[in-house]
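Entry 14. Ran structure prediction on the chain below.
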Amino acid sequence: MEPVALDGGPLTTGDVVAVARGGVGVALTPGALEGVAATRAHIEKLADATEPTYGVSTGFGALAVRHIPVERRAALQRSLIRSHAAGAGPEVEPEVVRALMLLRLRTLATGRTGVRQSTVETLAAVLNAGILPVVHEHGSLGCSGDLAPLSAVALALMGEGQVRYRGQLVPAVDALAEAGIEPVALVEKEGLALINGTDGMLGMLVLAITDLRRLLDVADLTAAMSVEALLGTDRVFAADLQALRPHPGQAESAARMTAFLADSPIMASHRGPDCPRVQDAYSLRCTPQVHGAARDTVAHAELVAGRELSAAIDNPVVLPDGRVESNGNFHGAPVAYVLDFLAIPVADVASIAERRTDRMLDVARSHGLPPFLAHDPGVDSGHMIAQYTQAAVVAELKRLAVPASVDSIPSSAMQEDHVSLGWSAARKLRKAVDGLTTVLAVEYLTAARALDFRAPLTPAPATAAAVALLREHVPGPGPDRHLAPEIATAEDLIRSGALVDAVQRRTA
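Output, structure tokens:
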């Protein structure tokens, strides 16, 4: 795949995913490098000036009142990075590190930060070489930038700290040497420019949006399988009924569920006037309303992410006319809010899926299915404890839906007295996305087993394709088996996109 061009303009979510997950490289355009050099010229004029400029000739945060003499200003930048690379806890995922490196590089390429061309090129070279600075879980308050995570990257550019390179944990200086990259000796303004952005939380937002788009497609499918297995009706998903409440996400989910259930012999078997059921339970009937609201929330998050992917975030910032101005654009509130917002529908989509699963296991509500879908109820427990796993995950997702952004802990001697905690919101959203994957995997396994029990009636072509894919890896109904590997297999089919691909071929 061609490298992602960094020309100082906005990136797309696809660009971020390609670099973060796909290992695609980046290429700085000549125009971007020219802009970087032109802006650096303004900083050079200030570097020897006696008038204080924040980030160039003063300390940082509450120490901004300290005027730094000319001969100490390069040391100021190095000290900034060393002291701010104060993360703790486990390492974050490689895709998160690559995303935040890309997004900081994009801001540098706008020419609004005042770094040197050589520094921008070095960061691009490190990213393209596959060198991953060790970034720790804890250390960002989501304000003044993701300081500790980005400082870990800047430290590696200096040839200090630890990195992952070619599968090994090695000193940064050794990895740079092996890759033929000269360490950066930071000068005025550069340390601050490398760390003063919302790049970590934004990268995690973009990755979560990508995952949730896929998971909501899966949720529509597993819900349709459950409706079919429970002898529910698809009439409530009709387009004219959805149009009475014109939310776009709701219409999309309803249309997808209708397509998944088209031409189902199971559905046809109970459409006649002798069917005594007037209405399905909410967990079946209201699925488009819940899934659709989640889709609309993701769409809002995409709007915010798109704006951030066009932003140049630094403090101070260098304006086109050469002015160097302090600002508050590093505050993570816009990103933190939507990260927290997304955790709510994730929990709710999982919650309604768990209710559908439980219904298929309850002989009093499953309309003819065996208790717990067991082969020999009493001797076998079927999917009884798989639902326990779902319930435990849903309970955790509810805790993860508690917002981080409503909290704030003052720092830097009350100079930085209100923070976003957007990094924390992003970290818990990543856990929530994983939890939703598990919940949907259990519903997928359970609905497929329930559909098998409806034989000799057969499911719709689309849902039958979902069952057939699963049966390539997981056997059908029978005596109790070790279920944990089967749940993991279903998760893999969801994460890889294989499930959605298999079904879409039957509905295209």
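The chain has a mean pLDDT of 93. Will compare against last week's run tomorrow.
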